[in-house]
Design a protein that fits this description.
- It comes from Pedobacter ginsenosidimutans.
- By secondary structure, the protein is mostly beta strands.
- It has one domain.
- The protein is built from no helices and nine strands.
- The mean pLDDT is 90.
Length: 115
């Protein structure tokens, strides 16, 4: 907490201008930071919030079974840290239960740019 004590700001934001690409659950994601709580002290920023995303993952199914689309919208949440214009992100995404697999949370990692 010492890091954010002197001349730091904490506020709620709807969009922070950060775009991130990364890896999760044998696929990729592209997202931007959505509604979040922002802690900032120049040149550092830490965001904890929702991550509207596009997930890119090919479905592995039995021959002849229907497949999901390779590009799907998704909503995750997680922690994004930025130093000047470089952003590092640790998102969490939920894969719902299907007939073949139980639902589970997946942790990913991403690298991006803060405008």
């Amino acid at each position: 907490m010492f890091f954010f004590s002197a001349k730091s700001q904490t506020k709620a934001v709807l969009f922070d201008g950060t775009v991130v690409a990364g890896y999760v659950d044998h696929g990729a994601f592209i997202n931007c930071t959505g509604p979040s709580i922002k802690f900032s002290k120049k040149p550092y920023t830490v965001l904890l919030g929702l991550l509207p995303s596009l997930r890119i993952k090919e479905d592995k199914v039995a021959a002849g079974a229907p497949k999901n689309a390779a590009l799907t919208p998704n909503l995750g949440f997680g922690l994004t840290t930025a130093f000047r214009h470089v952003a590092l992100q640790v998102p969490l995404y939920y894969n719902p239960k299907t007939a073949a697999k139980n639902g589970e949370w997946n942790v990913g990692v991403g690298l991006g740019y803060k405008f």
